[in-house]
Amino acid sequence: MTREFTGWHMLGLMVGGFGIIIAVNLTLAWNAIATFPGLETRNSYVISQSFQADRAAQNALRWNASATVEDNVLTVAILDQTGAPVQTEVVRVVLGRATHTGQDSAPELTWNGAALTAPVDLEAGYWNLRLELIAPDGTPFRRRFPITVQ
C-alpha cells in the first residue's frame, strides 16, 4: 500500500533540508567567530596610509630573514645582502597559534653572535611568529613567519 505524497510532505522535506543547511552555517559561523584571535591593528585605514612607504623601506634593507624551531629553540636569522648576520633591536615578539590567542607567548630573544634565539616549548602544529625589529639605521622591520612544528 502506498501513501499519497502531499503538500505537507513536501513542506516537511523543505523545512528539514533548509533547517540542516542553516544549522550547519550557524555552527560554522559560530566556530569562525569563537576562534578568531582578533584584529591585527586597531585602525587599518591609518596603517594603510604608510604601508607602501614602510614596505619600500623594509625592502631597501635587502635582508633575508627566516625563523625556525629546532630542539625547542626558536632561531631568527637575519642576513644582509652580503650574507652577514645583522644584529637588531627587538621591539616586539609574539609567538602563537594562527587560530587563537590562548597559547600566545613573548619569547625573550637574545643575540648569540649569529642570530636571535630563545628557548620555547611548542606543541606540534602550525604557529606564527610576529616580529617587530628596528634596523641599525632606525628603519622599522615587521614580519610574520609561519612555523610548523613536527
Automatic annotation (TrEMBL):
Keywords: Membrane, Transmembrane, Transmembrane helix. This is FixH family protein. InterPro entries: FixH, FixH_proteobacterial. It comes from Yoonia algicola. Pfam families: FixH. The keyword Transmembrane applies. The chain crosses the membrane at residues 12-33.
